[in-house]
Specification:
The chain is an all-alpha fold. The protein has eleven helices and three strands; from the N terminus they run βαααβαααβααααα. It has a single domain, classed as Rhodopsin 7-helix transmembrane proteins (Rhopdopsin 7-helix transmembrane proteins), CATH 1.20.1070. The longest helix has about 35 residues.
């Protein structure tokens, strides 16, 4: 097999045209929101010196990368009847999807640790979460994603593909691709489930456990409400990102029709919602964005 045919969503041009407009709106909104957050964090000294917002800027960059892995090809295919992708391009898409996705999982776990230190050890927060440690943790997240993705890609490329070549999704991912292999994939599926499924499930458990410990350690009612308010945005992001990933990768690779809808959620919609979730619930970010906008408007006027 030299190329794969992606199934897409519909064979009706009118429906695909409507989906093109919708997904283009999501993709443009993703770029505007995440770039705005990165520029705001980088330009504001107070935000840039805070470990929390340093990690938030890196999360926005990962969201941009994650959305860009699949969405441009999706938009092009919505205007193309064939929806073909070369074998090498399919493997590259699969690699970068898991590379960036796993890196984002690890980074979200790092952000949970950051909130734990900030709430449970506030006097030592700046000392523990130094810029050097934050850079190391971010680099470790990227490295963990690279190792995870390399394993997934090697296991996939070792399989023989001799037909059929119809990928039952709008992008190349491990579950639908290995279903097309001309070999018994039972052992490979178990290895991949234990890899992707274990990473997503264990990271999610660690995240929920960390927030539970935070709430248990805080005795006062007002303190718990403040901590819950602080962590609420992070919990929303974690739920939106990890929920679909666990659904896709933690169960045996039986393809359901609902998988496409779930894939849209964490590939297209979640990267767009992350900036809204963090900015709408964060006064410091909104204040910094207003200052940046006023500065930009003043420069334009002069």
């Amino acid at each position: 097999v030299k190329e794969f045919a992606l199934a897409g969503f519909s064979q009706k041009p009118s429906i695909e045209a409507g989906l093109f407009v919708l997904f283009l709106f999501f993709y443009v909104s993703t770029w505007i929101g995440n770039v705005f957050i990165m520029v705001t964090v980088a330009s504001d000294n107070n935000l840039n010196s805070s470990p929390m917002y340093f990690l938030l800027g890196n999360l926005s960059f990962l969201d941009l990368c994650y959305s860009t892995v699949t969405t441009p090809k999706l938009l092009a295919d919505l205007l193309d009847k064939n929806k073909l992708i070369l074998y090498d391009q399919c493997i590259a898409q699969l690699f970068f999807l898991h590379f960036v996705g796993a890196a984002e999982m690890f980074l979200l776990t790092v952000m949970a640790y950051d909130r734990y230190v900030a709430i449970c050890r506030p006097l030592h927060y700046t000392t523990i979460m130094s810029r050097g440690l934050c850079c190391v943790l971010v680099a470790a997240s990227w490295m963990g994603g690279f190792v995870h993705s390399t394993v997934q890609t090697i296991l996939t490329t070792r399989l023989p593909f001799c037909g059929p070549n119809q990928v039952d999704n709008f992008f190349c991912d491990v579950p639908p691709v290995i279903k097309l292999a001309c070999a018994d994939t039972f052992v490979i599926e178990l290895l991949m489930v234990s890899n992707s499924g274990l990473i997503s499930t264990s990271s999610f458990v660690v995240l929920i456990s960390s927030y539970t410990i935070i709430l248990v350690k805080i005795r006062s009612k007002e303190g718990r409400q403040k901590a819950l308010s602080t962590c609420a945005s992070h919990l929303m992001v974690v739920t939106l990102f990890f929920g679909p990933c666990i659904f896709i990768y933690a169960h045996p690779f039986s393809i359901f029709s609902v998988d496409k809808v779930v894939s849209v959620l964490y590939n297209v919609i979640t990267p767009m919602l992350n900036p809204l979730i963090y900015t709408l619930r964060n006064k410091e970010v909104k204040s910094a964005m207003r200052k940046l906008w006023v500065c930009y408007y003043t420069v334009v006027q002069t």
